[in-house]
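Reviewer 2 asked us to include a model.

Predict the structure of this chain.
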Amino acid sequence: MPTAEEAGDHPAGRPAYYAARPGGWRDWWTLLHPPYTAWHLSYSVIGAALAPRAATSRLIATVLAFFLAVGLAAHALDELRGRPLRTRIPSPVLVAVVAVGLAGALALGVVGVYRVGWPLIPFMVAGPVLVIAYNAELFGGAMHTDFGFAAAWGAFPVLTAYVAQTGSLAVAPVLAAAGAFALSAAQRRLSMPARNIRRRAVRVEGSITFGDGRTVPITADGLLRPLELALRATSWAIVLLAAALAVARLG
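Predicted model (structure tokens):
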């Protein structure tokens, strides 16, 4: 009797559609969550591009700070909590990545405050707090919600990047932050069921019966495919939109 996985009723074993085979450098690729990291770094590009005058050096510093804080520290902290990505990276190394990532982001924030002024201080302080509160699920997981995700990884990068350019806020970045919030909320609503199927489901069974009498079996792949195709397409769309805005503003 074949197992559910052999019968095709279970995900292929990967904890995410972009996850590589465990081991070596491939674990670092998986840890970075490449599509999602690029997606959220794009929000900082969009925020900077909305400024009346965008400085390339400030844009690069902002993107690098978010890469250190989100791409490295946040994802390493998340992996320390139960190994959801099933990497073989030693825990002490992950702890070091968290420390280096947050320290690097803070250092760039200090430089930013020196160049931009005091309006950047609340954002510099809030960044590490959001990373730790969300990914370590502090305060009883109060931040680890759809709202917390959308605010921290969607709206926050847009507003921070704009302030890093101008030292102030305006209507345009606030509207863009609201859009990023909505997109990030949609991302989480798509990714959570996909993640549950890949990482927690042990069996998927059932069928759909249509009015014409056709019966279609419910499979893990059938449930995952529309969710992950939508996530792939949206991640590319946000990255390309951010690239277009950066070229238009800086080109």
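The beta strands are 207-209, 215-217. Confidence is low (pLDDT under 50) at residues 1-10. We have added this to the supplementary material.
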